[in-house]
Amino acid sequence: MEIKEKDVFTGERVPLRMVEFLKEHHLLTLAVTDGADIWCSHAFYVFIEEENAFLIISEERTRHIQIVRKNPTVSGGVALETKKIGEIRGIQFKADIEQCKETIFGKYKLIYLKSFPYAIFKGGDLWLLRITEAKFTDNRLGFGKKLKFIREKLS
């Protein structure tokens, strides 16, 4: 990981402070657009650190997935709900989304079911959201403190 300027990280891996926050939570907001339509939704997620990716379940018939079929670049957020200013934390992200094509016993299905075993009874497909950019606000480090990440392939 390289630090390009103060608090801006580049490379293939999300900084550890962001990873730790994402692993403490399980609900994200997903925002999508195709230029003509715009929508958001919420989803339970598992964060896969090795892949810089969120793993979610959603159904083909949903409005947000119909939009994603036209434009796979998405954005979203994960936030800590608090009224205490000094404890505010949250991540805004940009990602590329792709459908996981695998069987019930595939790698991603098993990862998701380990965190959400009741999902075995829910329909829907697995989707990977690979983070390309993220901004983490953490007021515990100082009011309005932000860390940024931009994914760059390292040779």
Describe the protein's architecture and organization.
With 155 residues, the chain is an alpha+beta fold. The protein has one domain (2-151): Electron Transport, Fmn-binding Protein, Chain A (Pnp Oxidase, Chain A, Roll), CATH 2.30.110.10. 15% of the residues lie in helices and 45% in strands. The chain is built from three helices and ten strands. The chain has helices at 16-24, 63-68, 107-115; strands at residues 2-5, 8-11, 27-33, 38-44, 46-48, 53-58, 73-79, 89-99, 125-138, 146-151. Strands 1, 2, 3, 4, 5, 6, 7, 8, 9 and 10 form a ten-stranded mixed β-sheet that branches. A hairpin with a 4-residue loop joins strand 3 and strand 4 (38-44). The protein is globular. The chain starts with a strand and ends with a strand. The relative contact order is 0.24.
State the end-to-end CA separation. Answer: 12 Å
Task: Look at the structure and give the mean pLDDT.
Answer: 90
CATH homologous superfamily (4th level) name: Electron Transport, Fmn-binding Protein, Chain A
Secondary structure tally, helices: 3
In total, the number of strands is 10
CATH architecture annotation name:
Roll
CATH class: Mainly Beta
Structural class: alpha+beta
- State the domain count: 1
Query: Which fold does the CATH topology refer to?
Result: Pnp Oxidase, Chain A
Approximate strand percentage = 35-45%
For the biggest sheet, the summary is: 10 strands, mixed
Radius of gyration: 16 Å
Give the overall shape: globular
